[in-house]
C-alpha cells in the first residue's frame, strides 16, 4: 500500500502553558516552595521559576505529508528544540515514507549523539516522534493505541499529582501525589513539617486512599531513608525521585533500605532504553516513570516498557497527557496513570496541555473509557487562539 511521503517539518514555540506545565504565571501550587536540588540556595527556595524551571517553554512540531495531512507533537524544548528540528532533524524526515518511524528515530538519535543522548535533545526527538505517530494514525484512520496493539482493558484509572489529594479523592482519583515541600537544607524542622503535612493529609483522606511524595531530585540518601521511615506510619505508598537521576547507586541503596511495602519510583528525567536499563539492572526502583515527551517518544517507550516488563516492573509514565493515555491502555504493566493537576489550586481537572490543544480527553471520576481515545492519531488539534512562533522557519 503506497503511503504518502513527508513534505514539510515545522517547529514552533509557545509560552504560558502547553507542554511545559511549569511555565505558569501568578500563584500556582506547582511553584510554591517545593523541595528541589536548588533549594540548598536560600534565594532559590521559594519558587522554582526563580531558578528557571520554566525557561524552555513548549515546542510544537508539525510533520506534513504529501497529501496535506499534518501530524502534531508537543513537548518541552522551546526555542532550542525548534532550532534542532529545523536545522538538524528535518533532513531525516523530508522525502521519507511516513511509515519509516523506526529508521527516522535511529537516525535522529545517532546523528545528535555527539551533543545529545538525554535532556533537551531527546525531548526534541520525542516531539518529532510523537508527530510521526500522530501522522501515521491520521493517515490510517486509526488511534495510536490501535497502532500499538490495542487496549488491554476498557478504561484507564488515574492518580492525581497536586497540592490537594483530599480534593483529588473527592474527584474520584485512586490516589494523590504531593510535592515534598522541604529539603535537607531546611534541616530537621523541615523534615518534621514534611511529615506533619503527610499526617494531615492522611487524616483528611482516610486509610484507603493512596498518598505519595514526589521529591523532585531534591534529597540525599540519608534524608530519603529517614523520610521514608517516618512516612511509613502514615501509609506512604511510594517515595518518588528522591535523588539525582545520575545517582543509580544511591537509588539501589534506597530501594534496599525503605520500609517493607513502600515503593521506590523514579525515571521521569531518565531517557532512552539505555538509561532505563541502568535503573532496571541495578534494581533502583519498583516503578519506572518515563515521560513520553522526554524519554524518546512512543518509539522508545515501546522498548523501555518491554524492558521493564521483562524485569517484572511496572511502567507508569510521568505526565504527558494524551500521549501517555494511548500507551498505557495497551500495556498490562501500566495498570494506572498520572494526571498533573494544572489548576493553580489543584481544585479542578483540566486537560494536560491546556490551552494549547483542543479535544484533549480528561478523566471523569478519576477514570477514562478506552473508547474516548478512538480518534485518528492522538485525536487532538492545535487551539487556533494560541499564538505560535516559528523562529527558525524558512
Ligand atoms: C510536583 C513535582 O514537583 C513536579 O512538578 C511534577 C512531577 O514530578 C510529577 O508529576 O511526577
Ligand atoms: Mg515526579
Care to give the gist of this entry?
This protein is α/β, with parallel strands linked by helices. It has 11 helices and 14 strands. Helix content is 32%, strand content 16%.
What is the number of strand segments? 14
Number of helices: 11
What molecules are bound to this protein? Answer: the ligand C[C@H](O)[C@H](O)CC(=O)C(=O)O, magnesium ion
Question: What is the gyration radius calculated from CA atoms?
Answer: 20 Å
Quickly give the structural class.
alpha/beta
Shape: globular
* Beta-strand content estimate: 15-25%
**Arithmetic mean pLDDT:** 97
Instruction: Characterize the largest beta sheet: strand count, sense, and whether it forms a barrel.
Output: 9 strands, mixed
Order of helices and strands: EEEHHHHEHEHEHEHEHEHEHEEEE
Distance between the termini: 33 Å
Q: State the helicity in percent bands.
A: 25-40%
Pick out the low-confidence regions: none
Can you walk me through this structure?
The structure is a single chain. The chain is an alpha/beta fold and 394 residues long. Helix content is 32%, strand content 16%. The strands form three sheets. Strands 4, 5, 6, 7, 8, 9, 10, 11 and 13 form a nine-stranded mixed beta sheet that branches. The mean pLDDT is 97. The chain binds ligand LR3VJJ5N and magnesium ion. Residues 214, 240-241, 268, 318 line the site of magnesium ion (MG).
Write the layout of secondary structure elements.
Blueprint: E1 6-14, E2 58-65, E3 70-76, H1 78-87, H2 101-111, H3 119-140, H4 144-147, E4 155-161, H5 165-170, E5 175-179, H6 187-205, E6 210-214, H7 221-232, E7 236-240, H8 248-257, E8 263-266, H9 272-281, E9 287-288, H10 297-310, E10 314-315, H11 321-328, E11 337-340, E12 357-358, E13 367-369, E14 381-382
Parallel strand pairs: 4-5, 4-11, 5-6, 6-7, 7-8, 8-9, 9-10
Antiparallel strand pairs: 1-2, 2-3, 4-13, 12-14
Helix pairs in contact: 1-3, 2-3, 3-10, 6-7, 9-10
Ligand LR3VJJ5N binds at residues 30, 34, 161, 179, 214, 216, 268, 318-319, 340.
Amino acid at each position: 500500500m503506497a503511503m504518502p511521503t513527508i513534505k514539510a517539518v515545522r517547529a514552533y514555540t509557545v509560552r504560558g502553558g502547553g507542554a511545559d506545565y511549569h511555565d505558569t504565571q501568578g500563584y500556582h501550587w506547582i511553584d510554591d516552595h517545593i523541595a528541589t536540588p536548588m533549594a540548598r540556595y536560600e534565594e532559590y527556595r521559594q519558587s522554582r521559576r526563580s531558578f528557571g524551571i520554566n525557561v524552555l517553554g513548549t515546542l510544537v512540531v508539525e510533520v506534513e505529508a504529501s497529501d496535506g495531512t499534518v501530524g502534531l507533537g508537543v513537548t518541552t524544548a522551546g526555542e532550542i528544540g525548534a532550532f534542532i528540528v529545523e536545522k538538524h532533524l528535518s533532513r531525516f524526515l523530508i522525502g521519507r515514507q511516513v511509515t519509516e518511524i523506526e529508521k527516522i528515530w535511529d537516525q535522529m538519535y545517532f546523528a545528535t549523539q555527539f551533543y545529545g543522548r538525554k535532556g533537551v535533545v531527546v525531548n526534541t526527538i520525542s516531539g518529532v516522534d510523537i508527530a510521526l505517530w500522530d501522522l501515521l494514525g491520521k493517515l490510517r484512520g486509526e488511534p495510536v493505541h490501535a497502532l500499538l496493539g490495542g487496549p488491554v482493558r476498557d478504561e484507564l484509572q488515574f492518580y492525581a499529582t497536586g497540592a490537594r489529594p483530599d480534593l483529588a479523592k473527592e474527584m474520584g482519583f485512586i490516589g494523590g501525589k504531593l510535592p515534598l515541600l522541604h529539603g535537607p537544607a531546611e534541616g530537621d524542622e523541615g523534615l518534621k513539617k514534611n511529615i506533619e503535612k503527610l499526617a494531615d493529609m492522611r487524616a483528611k483522606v482516610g486509610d484507603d486512599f493512596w498518598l505519595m511524595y514526589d521529591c523532585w531530585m531534591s534529597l540525599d540518601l540519608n534524608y530519603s531513608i529517614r523520610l521514608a521511615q517516618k512516612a511509613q506510619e502514615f501509609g506512604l505508598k511510594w517515595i518518588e525521585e528522591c535523588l539525582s537521576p545520575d545517582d543509580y547507586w544511591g537509588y539501589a541503596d534506597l530501594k534496599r533500605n525503605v520500609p517493607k511495602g513502600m515503593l521506590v519510583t523514579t525515571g521521569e528525567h531518565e531517557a532512552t532504553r539505555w538509561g532505563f536499563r541502568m535503573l532496571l539492572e541495578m534494581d533502583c526502583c519498583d516503578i519506572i516513570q518515563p515521560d513520553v515527551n522526554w524519554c524518546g517518544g512512543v518509539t522508545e517507550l515501546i522498548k523501555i516498557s518491554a524492558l521493564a516488563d521483562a524485569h517484572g516492573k511496572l511502567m507508569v509514565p510521568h505526565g504527558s497527557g494524551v500521549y501517555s493515555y494511548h500507551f498505557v491502555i495497551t500495556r498490562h504493566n501500566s495498570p494506572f496513570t498520572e494526571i498533573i493537576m494544572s489548576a493553580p489550586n489543584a481544585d479542578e481537572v483540566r486537560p494536560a496541555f491546556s490551552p494549547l490543544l483542543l479535544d484533549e480527553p480528561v478523566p471523569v471520576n478519576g477514570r477514562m473509557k478506552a473508547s474516548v481515545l478512538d480518534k485518528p492519531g492522538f485525536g487532538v488539534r492545535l487551539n487556533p487562539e494560541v499564538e505560535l512562533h516559528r523562529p527558525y522557519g524558512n
